[in-house]
Specification:
The chain is α/β, with parallel strands linked by helices and 406 residues long. It has 13 helices and 18 strands. It catalyses: meso-2,6-diaminopimelate + H(+) = L-lysine + CO2.
Length: 406
Amino acid sequence: MQSKDLVQLAEKFGSPLYVYDAEKIQSQYNRLTKAFSKVEKLRVNYAMKALSNIAILQLLKEMGSGLDTVSIQEVLLGLHAGYDPEKIFYTPNGVSLEEIEEVSAMGVQINIDNLSILEQFGTKYPNVPVCIRINPHVMAGGNANISVGHIDSKFGISVHQLPHLVRIVENTKMNIVGIHMHTGSDILDIEVFLYAAEILFDAARNFKNLEFLDFGSGFKVPYKKDDIETDIEELGKKLSKRFNAFCIEYGKELTLIFEPGKFLVSEAGFFLAKVNVVKQTTSTVFAGIDSGFNHLIRPMFYGSQHQIENISHPKGKERFYSIVGYICETDTFANNRKIAEIKEGDILSFRNAGAYCFSMASNYNSRYKPAEVLWMNGEGHLIRAHETFEDLLKNQIPLPVAMATV
C-alpha cells in the first residue's frame, strides 16, 4: 500500500491508528511454506501473541494456519475465531496446573515446559497427548529480552535434565507426541538455528511415539531499507534436508512445525499518528505526536527501531527530529532521526508495527487505545473501533454514595 492510502485512512478513521496490509501477511505465509516445500508434513502455527485481533486470526485461518497460544484467553480467542481445537497449540509458561487442565479439556494440544507440572499432569492424565518444551541452552535473539533458549532463561526444560524428564515419562506412562524448542527472536545466523535443531533431534531420540517436532520461530525481518534479515530460503533448504534425514532415521514421517509471529505480521503493520506540536529547544527539535508508549511501547521497552516517515509531506527537505509522545514521563520513539520536514498536523507513519505493538498497548494515563484497520483488496476495513470513555469505565465499580460522602 502507498503513503496516500495511509493518509486517507488516518483522515477517515482518525489517529492514532494501526493499519495492517493483508497482502503482506499472505505473502509472508506463502514465502515460509514455499521455503519448506520439500518437507512432506509442514504446519505453520501463527504465534498470536504478536497480534491477536480476531480478523487477523481469521485471515490466517483461511490460509491454512494453526495457532500458537500462550494463555487460556488466547485459546478462547482462537476458538472464537473459528479454529478447530486440534489446530491450536498451547505453550504457557509459569501457569497453574488448573489452567493447563482446563485448556487440555478443550481438546487443544498442550506443551509443558517444567518438570513439576509434567509429573503432576502425567500422573493424572497419562493418556492425554503432551508436547515437551526443551531449553537447548543456545543464546539466540536480537537482545536479552527476546532470547529465551539460553541457560538462564525461565523457559523450557533443560536438555541437561533429560534423564529426569525421561524417568517421569516412564514412571507415569504418559503420551509424549512432540518435542518443542524456541531460542529467541531476530535470529540472523541460521547456523545457530541449525545447531539448536541438532539438540532437538538428540532429545527426540528418547521418545518413540512422536508425531511432530516444533522448531519455534524467531526469524528476523528487515526494519529499514537494505536491512539484514533471516535467509528463510537458505534455512528452508538446509533444515528440510536435515529434517527429512532425521525422519528416515526415526522410522516415521514426522510433522515439522513452526510458530512464526513477527515474521508474518511485522512488516504488514503501520502505526499512524498526528503531530500535535513541533517544539524547538536549545539543542533539539521535538515532534510531539498524539500517542505515546501506551500505544507503541517497543522503542522504550527494548530499544526497537521503527522507520518513521512523514507521509503527509514525504518529499520535504529532511531535518533531524526527536519523535516523542504525550505520556507524562520520558516517552521517546526516536532521537535525532532524519525525516522529511514536519509541520503540526502532519501524519507520521511508523513501519514494522504489526507485531507486539497493539498487543502491548495499554490505557496508561487513562488514554484510549487506538483503532485497527485491515487493508484488503484496496480498501480499509475497520477491525477494532477506537475506545471511548465508556470503555475506560467498564468493569470499574464506584464507591457507594454513602461511603463516598464520608
